[in-house]
Amino acid sequence: MSSVFPTDSVGLVSPKLAHFNQPLRLACGRTLEQYELIYETYGELNATASNAVLICHALSGTHHAAGFHHPDDRKPGWWDSCIGPGKPIDTNKFFVVSLNNLGGCHGSTGPSSINPKTGQVYGAHFPVITVEDWVHSQARLADQLGIEQWAAVVGGSLGGMQALQWAISYPERIRNCVSIAAAPRLSAQNIAFNEVARQAILTDPDFHAGSFTEQGTIPKRGLMLARMVGHITYLSDDSMGQKFGRELKTDRLNYDFHSVEFQVESYLRYQGEQFSNSFDANTYLLMTKALDYFDPAAKHDGDLTATFANAKANFYIISFTTDWRFSPARSKEIVDALMDAKKNVSYLDIDAPQGHDAFLMPIPRYLQAFSGYMNRISV
């Protein structure tokens, strides 16, 4: 590892591409005849393949969770604070696998990929994907990597939902489930926020019913608005107040509707602009729908306890006090159901002002507690 990187970094990493020719039957009733998953690995797989940890990403996440792709990269992977030598997910101990989910737009097969049947971009013709579909595709990746059982499956937000689904769908293939800032299903309010974001994209004149690539356009305005709406929900009122307050970006008020006068307006527009240049609109629609559809208890008449009946993993559930998108009450629903199902579960609610995005941040108590749990996992 080059000396230009911090000593607790995994250093330079290169993505790998896994090809799958076995058809994947999806929950929506359609089938992907073939597909690819892009992923990165950190650390070394031990001789018994018993030290593997799967990282599941959230809505806009990618396979690049830790380290750097180039020596001059300004920022490391999205969860670098938690993955690396001596960090909570210690790469001196664990072999870590992080992938971009099916339907993504960062290298795995998704709406922006070429459909081999037509030679054209999938676009709006890419099938709707669910969390359960993702887990099935991840299980095939594990097979290809020679991993029969994960030491842990870990994720935050939508990633935490995938970790829970792993424990439900493949109870023999996961020893520890670490679900952070997640929920057993979305509330009506959360579905409503997702719908507003989708409508911003769907009604953008440049969306062209999802076939914008063929038209040589990007629904930039819709993507910007979707990201702005989403970003507001990821932060707490306190964190936004501390970061921006009512501070003005301009010297005076302009008394119009077009000027960017408040710092928070400037911040949201910047976030929307950056996101619209790097994320596929059809993928955003897919990811939000996967969130909406996640409800594993639906197969058990809404009984979450019965849903976890066959799970064999140990569970670690973490929430954050100011997360109003997936509040601590939602994590407690999971904990209560696991306890009723007589499963081994640990729960921690972290006092943090950052809101939902706290799971991405290097909060000392969070990292300490996370490390404490991961250190106890035998490999």
Automatic annotation (TrEMBL):
Keywords: Acyltransferase, Amino-acid biosynthesis, Cytoplasm, Methionine biosynthesis, Transferase. Pathway: Amino-acid biosynthesis; L-methionine biosynthesis via de novo pathway; O-succinyl-L-homoserine from L-homoserine: step 1/1. Its main location: cytoplasm. It comes from the Bacteria. Substrate binds at R227, D357. One of its GO terms (molecular function) is homoserine O-acetyltransferase activity. The record marks R325 as: Important for acyl-CoA specificity. Homodimer. It comes from Denitrificimonas caeni. Transfers a succinyl group from succinyl-CoA to L-homoserine, forming succinyl-L-homoserine. The keyword Transferase applies. This is Homoserine O-succinyltransferase. Pfam families: Abhydrolase_1. It catalyses: L-homoserine + succinyl-CoA = O-succinyl-L-homoserine + CoA. The active site is at S157 (nucleophile), D323, H356.
